[in-house]
Write a structure and sequence with these properties.
The protein has one domain. It is mainly alpha-helical. It is flat, with a radius of gyration of 14 Å.
Length: 75
């Protein structure tokens, strides 16, 4: 994730997922978080929490299923 996205979207959560987070894990988070902090605006970075995803098998399918389920519940 580029720090510019943090500035534009101002997320509460930065989630690293998929096989990359499964293989690299905590070292990925430790390496990327300081870079985001360096380039993102301070208020945007401080409002966000960076974490590793727990579902590394197929996050696209999981996200699609959650979106469909959530849409059904909101109707």
């Amino acid at each position: 994730m580029r720090a510019g996205f943090v500035n534009v979207l101002n997320p509460e959560l930065i989630l690293f997922g998929g096989w990359v987070s499964g293989v690299l894990g905590e070292p990925l988070l430790s390496a990327v978080t300081p870079v985001i902090e360096e380039y993102a605006l301070a208020p945007c970075f401080e409002a966000a929490t960076a974490v590793l995803g727990r579902h590394q098998d197929n996050p696209v399918s999981l996200g699609t299923a959650v979106l469909a389920f959530e849409t059904h519940l909101l109707d």
